[in-house]
Amino acid sequence: MEGLVIKSTGSSFGVRLDDGRLCECHVKGSFRIRGIRSTNPVAVGDRVTVEQQADGTNWITDIADRRNYIIRRSTNLSKQSHILAANIDLAVLVVTLRHPETSLTFIDRFLATAEAYRVPACLVFNKTDLLTEAEREQLASVRAVYERIGYRTLALSARSLTAADRAELNALLQGVILFSGNSGVGKSTLLNALLGTDIARTGAISAVHDKGMHTTTFSEMYPLAAAPASGEAPAAWIIDTPGIKGFGALDMEREEMSHYFKEIFAAAKDCRFGNCTHTGEPGCAVLPAVAEGRIASSRYNSYLSMLGDCDESKYR
Ligand SMILES: Nc1nc2c(ncn2[C@@H]2O[C@H](COP(=O)(O)OP(=O)(O)OP(=O)(O)O)[C@@H](O)[C@H]2O)c(=O)[nH]1
Ligand SMILES: [Mg+2]
Ligand SMILES: [Zn+2]
């Protein structure tokens, strides 16, 4: 039997078989994807083959080749990595300027990772209802940084979605959509608002730390349109994921890091040396672009911090 992995708790997987039936499956301990050392060999979004044993249990026996996936390497530089989801049409990074505050470095690390894995990404700035007038201006300038690079950005309040927000989201959300971001930014709240039900659990953010409390604990995919058991595949699936703290650079080479920062990559075409890392080489075209404000300094700093990860892992 063939199906789609729609839920992952780490130890078991929810699979929607192609006839519309849902079943709980397990994976043999020895089963590993070639070439990827990850904590989870099977991820939400994977197409799998399922075999039912005589005792009624279901086992995943094969995983189809992935079109793409997003992988997160833990920031503590352990070699372990975790596949957030596979076969993604769009990664939506939900971020908040306040309560909690998403760092620009976090945004850039996420976007660079998405570029590295060729997953289209966009940004949803949530909780705009909590912003002061001054913070709204800050939001506008942060959005402008990303829009100028070519990333689509939306600003909204998931708690009170307007008809215009809904229309914009529905046009954007086609295929398999990954919702990612720090804990407490409102991923599950936005999902519920789109589905019109309180299907995903949400949780208040900590008053003491102004951070989320990791309410969502496993990844799950929700159909945006057709009912899951109707046999007919829905037009869009949204994957709600647990909040993440940070993104470490993957096994990227120093020289290729700038490929994942679109505007740095574009400016680098004019660098004197093909292997320029934009850290002081003569004839570098990126440094003047940063100095003149054509490249945001926050983006350049994020680039440097990811380069730093490469060095650390190399000289360890
Ligand atoms: N004021 C305001 N609060 C919001 C908004 N969206 C979400 N919240 C609140 O933020 C808190 C966290 O929301 P969740 O949806 O649980 O956040 P999450 O991103 O799913 O968090 P994790 O599952 O922990 O990763 C809840 O108390 C929500 O009600 C918003 O637009 N405005
Ligand atoms: Mg959640
Ligand atoms: Zn350069």
Please, could you describe this protein's structure?
The protein is α/β, with parallel strands linked by helices. It folds into three domains: 2-63, Nucleic acid-binding proteins (OB fold (Dihydrolipoamide Acetyltransferase, E2P)); 69-240, P-loop containing nucleotide triphosphate hydrolases (Rossmann fold, 3-Layer(aba) Sandwich), CATH 3.40.50.300; 254-314, Probable gtpase engc, domain 3 (Ribonucleotide Reductase Protein R1, domain 1, Orthogonal Bundle), CATH 1.10.40. The chain contains seven helices and 13 strands. It has helices spanning 104-116, 133-149, 163-172, 187-195, 262-267, 286-291, 297-314, and strands at 2-8, 13-17, 22-27, 47-52, 58-63, 69-73, 81-86, 90-95, 121-125, 153-155, 175-180, 219-223, 236-240. The strands form two sheets. Strands 1-2-3-5-4 form a five-stranded mixed barrel. Strand 2 (13-17) and strand 3 (22-27) form a beta hairpin. The longest helix has 18 residues, at 297-314. The termini are far apart. The structure holds guanosine-5'-triphosphate, magnesium ion (MG) and zinc ion. Magnesium ion binds next to helix 4.
The overall pLDDT average reads 90
CATH architecture term of the largest domain: 3-Layer(aba) Sandwich
For the record, give the distance between the C-alpha atoms at the N and C termini, rounded to a whole number: 45 Å
Radius of gyration: 21 Å
CATH class of the largest domain: Alpha Beta
CATH homologous superfamily (4th level) name of the largest domain: P-loop containing nucleotide triphosphate hydrolases
Unreliable spans: none
Order of helices and strands: EEEEEEEEHEHEHEHEEHHH
Specify the number of helices: 7
Measured as a percent range, the helix fraction is: 25-40%
